[in-house]
Amino acid sequence: MGATSFRLRRRPLTVVAVALVLLAAVLVVDIMIGDFPLTVSQVIDTLLGGGTRRDQFVVMELRMPRALTGLLVGGALGLSGAIFQAIVRNPLASPDILGVTWGAGAGAVSVITFAGSLGVVTGSAASLGLPLAGLAGGLVAGLLVYALAWRQGIEGFRMVLVGIGITAVAGNFTHYLLTVGDVQDAGRAMVWITGSLNGRGWEHVVPVALALVVLVPVALIGGHVLGALQFGDETSRGLGVRVNVARSFLIVVAIVLASVATAAAGPIAFVALATPQIALRLAGTAQPPLFGSVVIGGALVMLSDLVARTIYRTELPVGVVTAVLGAPYLMYLLVRSRREARL
Amino acid sequence: MSVRLEASSLCVGYGERLVVDTLDLSIVGGTVTAVIGPNGCGKSTLLRALARLLPARSGAVLLDGKQIDRMPTRDVARVLGLLPQAPSAPEGLTVADLVARGRHPHQSWYRQWSSDDAAAVHDALAMTGISDLAERTVDELSGGQRQRAWISMALAQGTDLLLLDEPTTYLDLAHQIDVLDLVQELHASMGRTIIMVLHDLNLAARYADTIVAMRDGRIVAQGAPGEVLTEAMLLDVFGLDARVVEDPVSGTPLVVPVGSRHRLP
Asked: What are the TM regions of this chain, as residue ranges (chain A) (predicted)?
């Protein structure tokens, strides 16, 4: 029996370390900038319990929950995308493409429009019902894709195709709701389905934080099977992996992560798609690194939100920024995969 | 010598079609067995069933006397290694990482990498002669090097049973010999039991102790190359008119097909 250890490479570790420093820096800058500008020392002072009462309010009640929601949502989306891409073995696989985020969107918009027009949405229903409906919608869509793509096992490409179908169905259902719903509700729903961190408080931070506290360790532990799942099914099974059990478990973890994130901040586009690929290229690994994707996803959403609320006179939803950055990237992926197919 | 792997009245199929039909086979420890037969005769299916990748429709596969589909798959993976036909690795995976994956059945979530694993990977790379390629990615290797990398992964798994599905496909003759010499060395120096599906009858005759000839999902001949590779068998199993002469190098049977262009007088 050899010594207990993990095989660690220097480059992926360096990437995680640098990304963590960057994450902390973005967090501080994100808190500094706003209608009441603060200095670095004021921010750090306030975070450590000092500062004036005004600083305390601005930092702890207004900016910190928003920044943390962005960080956690980004981390959850990054991890979810990394798991999907590793399992499906296709860089196009992500909760955005596979219908999970749109399913969550349809669930949440149902609550906004139906409950809204019936006058049922009051304080608690809005803060509890919306995230729960989002979670349920994401789970239903994700499990539906999984079940429809199942044919004696999961095949990546079929899952992407089924996912595109479910995305279209959920998207159209959402648009139907917006059409029949009350104008004011529809307005609120529109902001929500673009993906926004506006007005996020601690009540949004807590559910995502809890989900991450449970699911990140689960994913990292389950992730040791991912290395053996990156080959064809026969090779993986030859290595003693119960392929369908392992894959189903990890996909459910990824679906829950994406649904929780979407329930908190709406379907922020392209983060789950791009983050694992960025992490993979930086780390120089063959599979998206899980922890690296958490950190880079968090930094990406916080940074995008910083841009979204400072670039224009009025604040933009963060989803607009990630979409503007992510859409060209998706096109690049499609062009690249076509070229590979031809070779 | 004891029987390591056994098929007993084994039936395997896809959908309606029965591909392996009530087949009995015993593989004795420390031998090299080559399975031959025409395309579609069920030899790859047999190999997959022996490696518990396909379920038995009836009958059973026994590994060391125990029914293989009732054993935990990880326990099987510590004893029996498999090299599928044309395996695929993700883009960007290094040879060292590929071979390291062979250690999976010996690892768990709390013990992901040990000095045993490092030693096994080091040895597997050295034995297949690709230590200097360890940091290259699998996709940039030549066909022969890539096949060595995959065999190296199977070796790192540290199993004494090794099942190879057409390990010489897509390789030129020199590399085919190269890979089979390596298989021979594993057998000779480490006493491993090897079962491989081969298309080339002459190479099968050279490298196997036992040849199993299949047709329509059944075994039609089994034994030493000299007994199995006869002109009558070739006509019967492959529908091939051929002469069998002695291989001038190895003394094993050498199959010389007749074909329509060279009618014999």
From this structure: 12-33, 67-88, 100-122, 128-148, 160-178, 205-229, 249-274, 286-304, 316-335
Write out the two tokens for A100: 């999970």
Taking Cα atoms as reference points, which of B140, B69, B97, B261 lies closest to residue A9?
Answer: B97
Task: Give the tens place of pLDDT for each residue, B163-198.
Answer: 999 998 878 899 899 889 999 998 988 889 999 999
pLDDT, tens digit, for every residue of B29-66? 999 999 999 998 999 999 999 999 999 999 999 999 99
pLDDT tens digits, A153-187: 777 788 889 999 999 999 999 889 888 878 877 88
Query: Residue A39: which domain range?
Result: 10-337
Q: Is residue A5 domain-resident?
A: no
Q: Interface of chain A against chain B, CB under 8 Å?
A: 1-7, 89, 221-222, 224, 227-228, 230-232, 234-235, 237-242, 280, 284-287
The tally of domains found in chain A comes to 1
Residue B117 to residue A7, Cβ atoms within 8 A? yes
Query: Domains, chain B, ranges and CATH?
Result: 1-79+159-230 (3.40.50.300), 91-156 (no CATH)
Question: Which chain A residue has the Cα nearest residue B76?
Answer: A240
Instruction: Please calculate the CA angle A298-A318-A115 and round it to the nearest 5 degrees.
Output: 105
Tens of pLDDT along B63-87? 999 999 999 999 999 999 999 988 8
Q: Please check whether residue A3 lies inside any domain of the structure.
A: no
A232 CB neighbours in chain B (<8 A) are 84, 87-88
Interface check for B259 against chain A (CB to CB < 8 A): the answer is no
CATH classification at residue A313 = 1.10.3470.10
CA distance B165 to chain A (A): 11
Q: Give residue A68's region: left, alpha or beta (phi > 0; psi -120 to 50).
A: alpha
Please name the residues in contact with A25: beta carbons below 8 A apart, sequence gap of 6 or more. Answer: none
- Please tell me the distance from the alpha carbon of residue A98 to that of residue A81, in angstroms, as a whole number: 10
Of A240, A242, A287, the CB nearest to B90: A287
